[in-house]
Amino acid sequence: MTANMVRLAAIKDVQAYEPPAAFFDVAEETGSVFGENVFSLSAMKKRLPKSVFKSVAATIEKGDALDPAVADVVASAMKDWAMEKGVTHYAHVFYPLTGLTAEKHDSFMEPVGDGTAIWEFQGKTLIQGEPDASSFPNGGIRATFEARGYTGWDVQSPAYILENPNGNTLCIPTIFVSMTGEALDHKTPLLRSQKAMADQAARVLDLFGHQDIDNVVSYCGPEQEYFLVDSSFVNLRPDLLNAGRTVFGAKPPKGQEFDDHYFGAIPDRVLAFMHDTERALFKLGIPAKTRHNEVAPGQFEIAPVFERANLASDHQQLLMSTFRSVARQHGMECLFHEKPFAGVNGSGKHVNFSFGNNNQGNFLNPGDNPHDNAQFLVFCAAIIRAVHLHGGLLRLSVASAGNDHRLGANEAPPAIISIFLGDQLADVFDQIAKGGATSSKQKGILNVGVDTLPDLTKDAGDRNRTSPFAFTGNRFEFRAAGSNQTVAAPMVVINTIMAEALDFCASQIEAAVATGTDFNAAVQALLAKIVEDHGAVIFNGNGYSEEWHAEAEVRGLKNLRTTVDSLPEYLTPASRELFSTYGVFNEAELESRFEVGVEQYVMTLVVEANLTAEIAQTTVLPAAVRFQTELAENVGALKAAGVEADTADLLAVSALVADLRAGLAGLKGAVAGAHELAGIDEATYLRDSVIPAMDAVRAAVDALEEVVADDLWSLPTYQEMLYIL
């Protein structure tokens, strides 16, 4: 049996793929299922007494404190609703610092003394749970001998039902904290940061004379990129199974250079997967809106409608788990790693950010004449200040070993955090810097030379896909986030730095008005000051260019190229002061997140280094040596027959085998050197010594893949994984 028979068998399995039966009644109206598995406000209104419903609604919509007295009533109604839908168990769902979702399932069944059981769900159980806190990443906050942790019901994120053929589960989104109150999750600081931002935004609204200031919230619209690969191929790739990315793989004959995959026709198998995922998402109340092929072969994207940041974060986690589950039912694996395949675009998760409330609307809507919209200009100027002062924290918020492969390449924004405003806003702020804005560039009409088409509107400003923080009409798009991460991390930073910037703006205007300055003059002075002090962060050009890197250095912008460069941003005096001032992180929590970030980076690279060594040693090297032997035997046979033998192929393969052996020896030595180190020193060593050693092994392996006989190569190739679905 030849080594490539396993690959050929996998290809045969793909070709013989039969789609699963439809998950849903195809005649069922899609709109009728939206939110049917969510204990939403509408579901509560039907089941709760009016006074209880009003109390819960005030907590959800206005941010009022939850009245504990209503918990028993809500819990009973929630249990009855869930059991009518086939639920037998409930789970407090939380989001630990693994970046994944965690859950602990308990039954509604409670035994009673006469040998029978009742179905019960009390308010205290709804409000609080108690998982083990020491077994999750916590940076030293919890040890095994002090393992108590608590989950707490997040009323603003509705409970939902996860369906399974063997029984359904009621899922209750919660925070996760230690016994001593420190946040051990991503949700708790997100809620804190949103409150901090809301308080300062309300001060600005008050200065502009608003009387009916509703609860201010941040909104998030994350665009999710991902790859789909047939499970038969993934099962033959230990690197994909264990690391989520390929540590080897020669460039395929055709990659993405033709740009023919982007927005191309969606393959039938993928479209079937998309239909099923979207229907599942709709039932969970997740507003999936857009789907399309992405730039790389085998890569796709989904974008939901904007939601409150806290709910958007929960929905993103749920979306990823849903995609993984449905993909497997379709015989595929959904890959969220930022760079699963070298040489083609990686995957991001663009975080579209805005903030506002029910009464004043979206604060980042400039209107037709932004130069006359002073309130918008103040909010926009606050973002300029925030990003300039705290670009390092924004970079930190998207830092991971996976995202290091992607940031800075010509597929994602650079690690330098800058702002793109577009022609219209850039012109307005330029006028402000010169003494005052009096005009705004207007939208135009696009003439495409086709008489049968109606007039097409041309925006007043272009888009810039190379900018990490770009204004896109009525929001800012933070494009640097990685596909595999929670959107809570960047949203925590955005909310917190916005709280500081809005605090500054409100305080400046208040102080000026208190000394007799006209309000409008105070606003104009504030805007001019921000442009003068922080305009260096505005860049509308090509962020991919080398010239920009040099210019950014002159402007004083940080270029934190790797996660190791970024992690110390947690512990700077400025970061400590920022997060403590606005009550988002205390000292212990910042220290813990630094330690967890270092630990996860180290573990990721150690796993990848071990995979590189194992696959190269046990799979690639034997195949290469067998091919080398075949070539040597052929040369010997030709010489014995008196035929002149060409030894070029043998010498080339022998050189690559020698390179591979040398690379493996270097990698093993480099990994051994890491054992003497710990913490950030180990992370730095892995970046500077182990990654280059892995790259050396990869170079030899990828070169061998291009010359070793196909019947000896057992690893599915890029060409197969990216193109056969």
Automatic annotation (TrEMBL):
Biological process annotations from GO: glutamine biosynthetic process
Coiled coil: none
Organism: Nocardioides currus
Name of this chain's protein: Glutamine synthetase type III
InterPro entries according to UniProt: Gln-synt_C, Gln_synt_N, Gln_synth/guanido_kin_cat_dom, Gln_synth_cat_dom, Gln_synth_gly_rich_site, GS_Type-3, GSIII_N
GO molecular function: glutamine synthetase activity
Domain GS catalytic: from-to ranges: 194-620
Signal peptide start-end: none
Family recorded in the similarity comment: Belongs to the glutamine synthetase family.
PANTHER family recorded: GLUTAMINE SYNTHETASE, TYPE-3 GLUTAMINE SYNTHETASE
Domain GS beta-grasp: residue ranges: 88-181
